[in-house]
Amino acid sequence: MNRHQINELNMYDAVEQLFNANTSIWSGNSAMSATVATFISHVNAINANDTVQKTSSIGTTVSKQNAQEAMAIAAVAVANAGKAYATATSNAVLFDAMNHTKSEIMQASDTDADDICQNIHDNLNPYIANTTAYGATAASLTNLQNLINAFSALIGKPQLQKSIVTNATITLAQHFAAANALLKNQLDALMVQYQTSNAVFYNQYKEVRVINDIGHRHTVTLAGFVYDNHGHAISGATIVLSGGASHHKITNATGAYKFTRLHIGSFTLAVSASGFVTQTKNISVAQNETVHTDFTMVATGGGTNTNTPTSANTQ
């Protein structure tokens, strides 16, 4: 995958995790269920094709080279025995057929190397009963034939692997295109129905639906949402930032706030809203990243403090 695809897949994974963590909210909606299932199938296919794409032809090439060397060593051992026998019996034709070296076999093309070794085997075979004393036996010829077969089976495998990887790359692009179309044309539209009925789920979706370039993160961002105990967004809440910087923000209609372009350090967030108890959180950031922290406000006069724990996610 290229860097843009990696960034897209990070977004897909975040969306999938969000749906997996909130099945009770959407699983009863048949349209949502079908769309989420299709989306996850595309993510699974992308991961599977990415594994194929990452498979290198180097391993196959090394195996072929090793097989060629083993074949060459066995062939030359048989050929040397054949040359010695041919010399002792004045068999010039056999001598010429045996006159090959390991370097010649290793430097030959795949098909030529295969042919040289096969010719050595076939030309010595009629004399094998007489060459035991010279170092060539029926067993050594059988071993040579097995090594020739093993090498022949590997010829063309690196090219085949590269072809498989290329096809996986094409399929990968197709699944990315399908996943993006599904998100844009279906899931984004389907999620609007939760904007009021479940603001937390909707806002979390909008948050993870963003593609972030993991290669370019130069500052700290503090962001999140403010809700009441029922998960409804609180608009107009004041967020005061102090510590490494001093700023304030007002939450929008979805309860969202964001402080950007901050430096690494320690911060305090104080949230106040009419009718709710003021809350504060201390946040320490040790690297350039986006830190997400939500607030669940307790109504003045009572209620359970159900603050969402602070979570830091580098994107």
Low-pLDDT windows of residues: 55-60, 303-315
What sequence of helices (H) and strands (E) makes up the elements? HHHHHHHHHHHEEEEEEEEE
Secondary structure: helix percent:
40-55%
Distance between the termini: 18 Å
Total number of helical segments? 11
Give average pLDDT, whole number: 83
Specify the structural class: alpha+beta
Largest sheet: 5 strands, mixed
Strand content: 15-25%
Rg value: 35 Å
Shape: rod-shaped
Supply the number of structural domains. 2
Number of strands: 9
Describe this structure in words.
The chain has 315 residues and is α+β, with helices and mostly antiparallel strands. It has 2 domains: 1-212, no CATH class; 217-315, Immunoglobulin-like (Sandwich). It is 55% helix and 15% strand. The protein is built from 11 helices and 9 strands. It has helices at 3-21, 23-26, 30-54, 58-88, 92-98, 102-107, 110-124, 138-154, 157-191, 194-197, 199-208, and strands at 220-227, 238-243, 247-250, 256-262, 265-272, 279-285, 290-292, 295-296, 311-313. Strands 1, 4, 7, 8 and 9 form a 5-stranded mixed β-sheet that branches. Helix 4 (58-88) runs parallel beside helix 7 (110-124) and helix 4 (58-88) runs antiparallel to helix 8. The longest helix is centred in the middle third of the chain and has 35 residues, at 157-191. It is rod-shaped and about 115 Å long. The chain starts with a helix and ends with a strand.
